[in-house]
Amino acid sequence: MSKAMHSTPMLDQLEGGPWPSFITGIKRLAQDEGKPYQEMMIDLLGQLEHSYETRKGYWKGGTVGVLGYGGGVIPRFSEVAAKYPASKEFHTLRIQPPAGMHYTTKLIRQMCEVWEKHGSGLIAFHGQSGDIMFQGTTSEKVQGAFDEFNEMGFDLGGAGPAVRTGMSCVGAARCEHSCANEQKIHRLLVNNFLDDMHRPALPYKFKFKVSGCPNDCMNAIERADMAVIGTWRDNLKVDQAEVTAFVANKGRKYVIDNVITRCPTQALSLNDDDTLAVDNRNCVRCMHCINVMTKALDVGDEKGVTILMGGKRTLKIGDLMGTVVVPFMKLETEEDYDRIKEMAASAIEFFADNALEHERLGEMIERIGLVNFLEEMGLPVDPNMIAEPRQSSYVRMDEWDGEASKWFARKQEEKEARAA
Amino acid sequence: MAAPRMPIESGVPDPFQYMHPIMARNFGAWKHHERPRPGVLCHTAKSQEQIWTVRAGTQRQMDVYTIRKLCDIADKYADGYVRFTIRSNIEFMVGDHNKVEPLIQELTAEGFPVGGTGPSVSMIAHTQGWLHCDIPGTDASGVVKALMDELYEEFIHEQMPNRVHITTSCCQINCGGQGDIAINIQHTKPPKINHDLVANVCERPTVVARCPVAAIRPALVNGKPSLEVDEKKCMCCGACYPPCPPMQINDPEHSKLAIWVGGNHSNARSKPTFQKLVAAGIPNNPPRWPEVAAIVKNILQVYKTDARDWERLSDWVARIGWPRFFELTELPFTKFHIDNWRGSRRSLNASTHIRF
After folding, report:
1. Predicted confidence band at B149 (pLDDT cuts at 50, 70, 90)?
2. Which of A107, A135, A210, A243 is 20 to 30 A from residue A235's alpha carbon, by CA?
3. What is residue A329's three-state secondary structure?
């Protein structure tokens, strides 16, 4: 018979109700007679109940890792180990999932076996950073667990001031809105910076996120230092027979109220014969009409990506959205993919050299101004980067003529490229 | 002695080896999709091949027995393939639509709610909390379990005006991210400093630099080098606590919960928006946080009743205006709702557009 279970009257109240209970799951592990993690999970429940009673957390960090890497393990040592000794050490391994979070049951079962042997039997699919979180093991067992995952083809993710685990949507694997090869971009970018992921030495974290269309299901604009979002630059595709069928089914009022008048740039109009007129020059690719009329409307054929940089959450100067640094680029040839890879490398290098300690890319850009960043990156300015031009006259502009001729020269080049 | 094993720096794995064959075969060649019922998507490829996706909620933090049960279900109905969404929902992909209904029945019988698609309240994106974080003001999984019990019907049905993403964060760093509704810790008292430990535990210049309002300065306390906080300047964000644990910010009574609304990452209709404060001072009340649940349910009910189809919470408030939001939800509007952080003038009403 193992050690006794702690009394957990507060946690017990999280076992009722219709939603699946993580407490029931942890209790199951704590009742697993003879398993190496049993006592750890008994004391984990004890410590968690103690947190619920006192309304405080009792974990502190430390230094635990695997050979060859400086990050990827989240060390947790209990401050109340005297009362709950078996969960004294409860470290997490962040493991990067396959891009798009696809799994076979065979793979998941293998992962469960490893974690039963080396860990707590508790796994989170997935953490906010996009990692599989293998939660709860001792300092001694971290290396053994990692070695087995690593041999299965899995690698640790990022933690601390490093390139972090990236995320990409299901995208081209199942979504007709996909304007990019999300998994390829995700893997190309993250896997090119594994040294910066595994050996944290940046001013602060750096995140890549990839969404295949402007619905941005990966929340890239708000959370990624470099957001790559699929879009298109030719016309919205309209299947007029399907439009007419949709109007016949839903009624004109529904279509006017939910599609036509919801277009943010008033680029849509319903014709008298119940077909759709689109002012493509003024469409901003917001996705709303496509989301409503999934059969009738579709993204265009000339696909590519918009790149935004500088998104982050609260610390330190407040929330920042990523803003446009590349309005549109195609990702078709290997040269195109090389270009995006080089762009990421320049951003990280400039960030490493110029950001203050604990400053995110967006904060650095806020501090030095977008133009200084763009010039270092070798990216041309574009009116798609702004919501509106400058309002303040407090700026020195004696280089105006040179800058204006750059613009005209670029427009001329683009015109010639289009003609060629 | 054998040479130590060095890691294989393999990075992000190639997903094709784990992808359902119908998805792999039709990669980049999908035509359209429909939602035959809540929790089910049907995608049709240009090849005319179809795939049904059945989405179910999970508790995210799962024991191996729960995970194996989900694997058994996937083996039985979904050819042994699954995927997860960003909100910890599991998806089973099915090529034969006759398997959809039995799959839904088995998931429901095993206690996994089928839903989270379209205009529903999806699973709450959340952080680690007391279970694993080193700086948590509250729990995460427990708050989410308690809330999802209350919002269960809204998960399994599609009765909201548009999708609702809820997030929770156990400190003000807000790892939970932006949501239509966000439930976040808001500290209300400055950190309590253990001056005996600061010199040994904290890199003092780093901590001074970390403060967003420059309220921390080095000081000699009881003859020991330590830090002191100008409590008039301090806005109790807790940014000093991670680099300096002796600056204890978490407090069982004074670490409260605040509710923010209108965060939206999609570009559909309006540009993406950040969430805005609507309620604060809510007690951190485990194990079921009833005060939080009551406010969230009230906001959802008002939104459900008053918003038009396809309006996200942010779109709805943009149409009806903030005065009406506070009127309809009966939440108090206070001086704390008026922003005073940098750039805050853009949030003031510089017009005579007034709502009565």
Report:
1. very high
2. A210
3. strand
